[in-house]
Amino acid sequence: MAASLNIALMTVSNRHTPETDTSGDYLAQALVHGGHHCVERKIITPDLWLLRQALCNWIADENIHVIISTGGTGFGPDKNTIAAIKPLLDQTIRGFGEIFRALSYHDIGSAAMQSDAIAGLANNKVIFCLPGANSACKLAWEALIGPQLDDQQKPCNFTGLFDSPH
Question: Which domain holds residue 19?
Fold first, then answer.
């Protein structure tokens, strides 16, 4: 039986509502299709301290295995996702951002360098911070996140970090 992980989803936005959060909708559907559970989902404004508060609550929640955020990873005055999460990480997964930008380059060209997408570990939770575009979320899930949350993925995957996530 494949591992079934509990995943929390956060959309960072000043403009999206539950009705317009198409990137969050895609990720929620994709993770359920992958056999996982969306245990919490929220839309939060890009306020640095509100982001940190929400992330800290999820990082401390022993029921959550994975946190995925979408939005706030590019350049601009309200782009605080990376600034909020970086100090909370115990370890970064450098290859995630590097591979994501390399794959994105094939879709969007040099604009890929403006994404500060990152991943890391905090309190034994895997955290992925993605751009807000639907295409970016789809690329990240299909090429990187989904396969790494599948315990059948060889030679390694992230599911071994969790105590019996079935």
Answer: 6-161
